[in-house]
Write a structure and sequence with these properties.
GO terms for molecular function: calcium ion binding. The protein has 663 residues and is mainly beta. The protein folds into 6 domains: 90 residues, Cadherins (Immunoglobulin-like), CATH 2.60.40; 97 residues, Cadherins (Immunoglobulin-like, Sandwich), CATH 2.60.40; 101 residues, Cadherins (Immunoglobulin-like, Sandwich), CATH 2.60.40; 88 residues, Cadherins (Immunoglobulin-like), CATH 2.60.40; 103 residues, Immunoglobulin-like; 103 residues, Cadherins (Immunoglobulin-like). It contains 5 helices and 53 strands. Strands 1-2-3-9-8-5 form a 6-stranded mixed beta sheet, with no helix packed on it. The longest helix is centred in the middle third of the chain and has 6 residues. The termini are far apart.
Amino acid sequence: VMEMGVCRSALLRVLVLQLAWALVCGQVRYSVPEEAKAGTVVGRLAQDLGLEAGEPEARRLRLVSQGRRASVEVSEASGALVVSSRLDREELCGKSAPCSLRLEVLVERPLRVFHVELEVTDINDNAPVFHVKEEALNIAELSLPGSRFPLEGASDADVGANAQLSYSLSPSEHFGLDIQKTEEEGESLFLVLRKPLDRETMPIHRLVLTANDGGRPPLTGTVELVISVLDANDNAPQFNQSVYKVKVLEGTEPGTLLITLSATDLDEGISSDVMYLFSKHVTAEVKETFSIDENKGEMRLRGNLDYEEKDSYEIAIEARDKGSPPLSGHCKVVVEVLDVNDNAPEVWVTSLSVPVPEDAAVGTVVALLSVSDRDSGANGRVRCTVWPSAPFGLVSTFAGSLVTSELLDRELINGYNITITAADLGSPPITTQKTLWVQISDVNDNPPVFSADTFDVFVEENNPLGAFLCQVSASDPDMGENGRVSYILRNSTIAGSALASFLSVSLANGSIYAKRAFDFEQLRSFYFQVEAKDSGSPSLSAAITVNVYISDQNDNAPAILYPTSQNGSIAVEVVPRLADEDYLVTKVVADDEDNAQNAWLSYHIAHSSDSTLFHLAPHSGELRTTRSLRSTDFLKHKVVVVVRDHGDPPLSSTVTVGILLAD
């Protein structure tokens, strides 16, 4: 059964095991008896957390360790919380009750943390134990009936009813038991003399003291009491109090006086001289921590006190006279250790999700933190801060969470050294710092960028195939594949042909090469676009326009348009014999497909049958007579004209003009 809202719990008893759980104030609580076998199902954790079938494994449902063995684990198959190793309540919690283990359960996608409280219930698996197997007592023969002698009781590592002890004594006409319970002194066990002793009749009495616990069935422990009956000294020293209480701060310097004890003895002489001793039942730990002056009764601190290790001591003191036989009086000194702020807070990172993608939303959990302080009260309360304060912050949940507080940009800052400071509320406070390196991972959020929108290229015609034209380059501030740029030509046409038939581009570095020779006379300029694309997913791109200008080369010789010859014959011009000086014989007309100076033409006579008769205008190509014709001039003449351009080197063409003198 599960109840929400009000903090309640439900018990589910299955056979001998008591397995209970409840969602309490948003938390899950189970209980399991100690010593449960490995594999015992503690609770259906995945179902109680609202996870569907298959989700526990898909979302990596798991326990987060805080340094103490929990002895339970999450089954990957079923999502149930099961016992993984021996559960010993006494090892886990000692005498503390209830014995609750605080566990943290983690699920991913999205990352969430749940608090699980597991209560380990006690079973009666520990019998009462006495400090010794045999206890020797010296009792004066003159002791009066009703005299009481303190006995050390047994201890039981269990708790609750399993640790409630009762005592019984083997039958004896001289002795009985008395148990006193007070709020201040707790439970005290006494051996009571009921009938006067006679040492001469029975010098030694042997009795068995039995302790029974309250378990079902009960367990027992025994100790043998060996009582020696002594003569003479009949007054034992007496303390004025049965219990003395002392308060002392932890960390107090060894040698500090705690209390001065005093006991009186009504006897006289040596029988009234008292010395002070620790009871023989006092543990070695107490003797290492405290000392007592036998003669003065001064009890001093000998070792170091640590509130977190032990917050109180109950020390049995014996005042023994020097009579023969000696008699003793007893008291108890209760030392209460007071806490001081001597423990620094501890910070654990229970989960760290790095690197953090730069497009992480505000509030994304980066790390789960667990903070504790062994001190008590304000000394054990801890406040945490984070530096730098942006772009990360702390969110207080059951386990503190380090989350993003602002948007990230890897291109500006690729990682952060995060310092988490935990300070307790003691006076003065003690602080602890934990440093985390949070790496920011790249996402493809930047397209490639060219330095300009256009790029101009000048190339001479008649270039060789595969000639390098230019290189375009784009930069991308992203990392790895996101920043690796490749280049392609965007589809287009040039003079009706596909761009790819003219050019090629290097995918890796943007170098552009000619796949054919350009002809200035056919194509003087064109443009195309190069696209730079990164390798991210999805990829981002940018484009640049490349303008190509083709420059002319002197690759065309002048073409003679007039006069023309047919079938290899020479063109003939007829000149009357009566022609005067500067008579226009003919005009040589030529053209050059090149451009600029490569197309500037000049005309020259390369050969003439009569060099005195004709001259040629170098710019117009007009062939004229240099004088009037004479009757003695030959009837036929031949003039070879050279037409030359101004290229470097120049190209030329020739034409032969036949001239016939006629009446």
